[in-house]
Specification:
82 residues, alpha+beta, four-stranded antiparallel beta sheet, 1 helix, 4 strands
Length: 82
C-alpha cells in the first residue's frame, strides 16, 4: 500500500455507506484517485490512475446491476469512451 500524502484533499465517502463507519473514502486530484479506510484516516492510502479506477467502478456497477451474475476483473482497462 502506498500513502499518497494527500491528507488535505477533499475526501468523500459514498452516500450508500453504513453509519457504522465500515467504508472507504475516495479523493481525486485529476492525476490519481486515492482510497483510504474511513476509520483509519492517517493510515495507508491506495492510489490508482483514473483509468484503473474507471475500470474498477465499471465492474462494481455492472455487478451491482446484475447481482446474480459473476464478473471477472478486466485484464486491462476498457478503451476510452466505452
Amino acid at each position: 500500500m502506498k500513502n499518497t500524502g494527500l491528507p488535505r484533499v477533499g475526501w468523500r465517502k459514498s452516500t450508500y455507506s453504513f453509519s457504522n463507519g465500515n467504508c472507504v473514502e475516495v479523493a481525486g486530484t485529476g492525476t490519481m484517485i486515492a482510497v483510504r479506510d474511513s476509520q483509519d484516516q492517517d493510515g495507508p492510502q491506495l492510489a490508482f490512475a483514473p483509468e484503473q479506477w474507471a475500470a474498477f467502478a465499471a465492474v462494481v456497477k455492472a455487478t451491482h446491476q446484475n447481482p446474480g451474475r459473476s464478473r471477472s476483473w478486466p485484464a486491462s482497462p476498457p478503451p476510452a469512451g466505452s
